[in-house]
Write a structure and sequence with these properties.
By secondary structure, the chain is of the alpha+beta class. The mean pLDDT is about 95.
């Protein structure tokens, strides 16, 4: 059976603990606009990108140097009819050593091609993981969404 989840993998020279620490530095690679804790078991945080996307994640598994799993508690996309597409999905960061390097495997378990948001989410996760998170780990600086100022009306 074909894997029905979005997944991508890369390898770096940094240690598993360094990779783990940067995965948990969500403001350093995903968005500077993250409200809440992002590194302890049962922490909850909210991500928001303008009026396009807002979601709340809960850390349901945290194994230092090895694994981080987020559970999506709620989600809103301005561009989909079904607002529940991410709800209940899991975002997993698996860290392992392979061939003298540290491998990070990112999986959004439940993000399938049947979802209305799949193409946009595929492109976004590819950028945030293979670009921004990779750069944060290897160069010390990612390309997170900047913290936008909300317009007062």
């Amino acid at each position: 059976m074909k894997d029905q989840n979005f997944s991508t993998t890369f390898s770096v020279d940094q240690t598993p603990n360094e990779v783990f620490n940067e995965v948990n530095n969500v403001r350093g690679w995903w968005s500077e606009r993250i409200d809440g804790g992002t590194d302890q078991l049962n922490d909850e945080f909210t991500y928001q990108r303008w009026e396009l996307h807002k979601c709340t994640m809960k850390l349901i598994e945290v194994v230092p140097g090895k694994k981080v799993v987020w559970l999506c508690l709620d989600n809103y996309f301005s561009f989909t009819k079904d607002q529940t597409e991410w709800v209940g999905t899991k975002i997993e960061f698996d860290i392992s050593e392979k061939d003298g390097k540290t491998q990070l495997r990112f999986t959004h378990r439940g993000l399938t091609q049947a979802y209305e948001c799949y193409d946009i989410c595929f492109n976004a996760w590819t950028f945030y993981i293979n670009g921004s998170l990779h750069d944060l780990i290897t160069k010390g600086k990612g390309q997170p969404n900047p913290k936008e100022e909300l317009q007062e009306h």
